[in-house]
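Troubleshooting: if your tokenizer reports a length mismatch, compare your output against this known-good record of 90 residues.
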Amino acid sequence: MEPNWDSFADKLAKRYPRQIIEYYWNKGCSFIAGGSCKSYKETAKCLQKARNIYQNFLKENDVWQSRLAAIKMQYKNKRAFLNEIRVVEN
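Known-good structure output:
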């Protein structure tokens, strides 16, 4: 049985927010290469968790907005990706 790392990460988010943000950010970015709507939805889920930590634990919405803008710029030609991550913009 494979361990559920996300569940473990969620439990550590309050204590180690920056490390868990990077965990979710890197995990989310790894799905982008899949190039499918399904993989982009997985990316959106990971970015949403990172956003929640930025906003709720660190109160760093400006950092979140900056990182989100950078990833959107990096993948500006991937319309399906941009469409899927709209859910994490706020």
